[in-house]
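Researcher: For the annotation table, I need structure tokens for Bet v I/Major latex protein domain-containing protein. Please keep the output clean. Sequence:
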Amino acid sequence: MAFVTATAGVQVLIKSLPDTFWTKIQDSANSFPEAAPNLYSSIAVSGTGYAKSSMAQILRISKTRLSLSLKNSRGKLAYTVTDGDILQKYKVKTFQAEIIYPNTGKWVEWIWTYNYLPEDKTRILELDEEIAVITVKTLAKLDSYIQNKLT
């Protein structure tokens, strides 16, 4: 079987200071449930590098491996989904994503890459749509949360 590799992503313009926003991204286990409780009921990080996360109403992920890597002047928070609904529901072999430090124009990127079988292309379009909604809402709610904390 030949898998197809696909990449998709979103960009969100933030109002927060990039360093403040990035600090909250790096602490996503705490900041995502606080900023977007309707999306994330909890994220528990253990010493093994795995986070158990549940996104209420939209998507449930049973295990997500998180690995943090900062590269050059643009930081990247990268993670790999190792088990859960993304892999099972959409029949993807792998799912990896990166959140990229805001650029000079304050645009934050969230990019995901995955492998799937050609016959599952219809499901993949649904995956991209669902993940795009979640990521845009997460970034926007986090930005709003930071703004409200500063006022």
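Researcher: And a one-line annotation?
Model: The chain is about 35% helix and 40% strand.
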